[in-house]
Amino acid sequence: MRRSARRRRTVTAYREMGRTVVLIPAAFSRAEEQRWVAQMVAKLRTREERRRRSLGGNDELMVRARALSAAHLDGLAEPASVRWVDNQQRRWGSCTPTDRSIRLSSRLQSMPDYVIDYVLVHELVHLLEPGHDERFWALVARYPRAERARGFLEGVELANTAGAAGEQPAPDLVD
């Protein structure tokens, strides 16, 4: 919970490095604080659960990957499997071209759809180009929001790095 002298009426909640942060006006009483924190935590949980359901499981992820391949890679990238995994803490996704399997970090589930689609396209391109050469990046660039998604992920990484070092992330990276 963070109190802000600049806030007058609004309350905001978000996740930051595995913690819930609730921003409230400094003038709120302890009772108002408790009520708003409980309300905002419940709202965050509901939003995250709804998003998890809308993203679906591995079957829906495969459908999404095939649609992205068709739309941006002429259908040439054909994964054998696409699934969410919980064991990727440093990578957003990974691909094994030999068995055509793609894995996406479950950390992506809280991110905008265009970011998830970018990571999927990136991994799909690895089915066509294993390295990160010019041809690889030219194929990734076929996804129209690639640059924006990369910037988003760089911002997340920067915020995580600053938080791990005990620094306060820049305000524009938090909200």
H/E series, N to C?
EEEHHEEEHHHH
| CATH architectural label of the largest domain | 2-Layer Sandwich
Binned, the helix content reads 40-55%
Low-confidence stretches: 168-175
What is the total number of structural domains? 2
Tell me the overall shape.
elongated
Give a quick set of tags describing it:
single chain, alpha/beta, Zincin-like, three-stranded mixed β-sheet, 6 helices, 6 strands
How would you describe this structure to a colleague?
- The longest helix is centred in the first third of the chain and has 26 residues, at 30-55.
- The protein has helices spanning 30-55, 58-72, 113-126, 134-140, 146-164, 171-174; strands at 2-4, 12-16, 19-25, 81-85, 93-96, 101-105.
- The chain is built from six helices and six strands; from the N terminus they run βββααβββαααα.
- The strands form two sheets. It has a three-stranded mixed beta sheet, covered by helices on one side. A three-stranded mixed beta sheet has the order 4-6-5.
- The chain has two domains: 2-54, no CATH class; 56-163, Metalloproteases ("zincins"), catalytic domain (Zincin-like, 2-Layer Sandwich), CATH 3.30.2010.10.
- It is an alpha/beta fold and 175 residues long.
- The model is unreliable at 168-175 (pLDDT under 50).
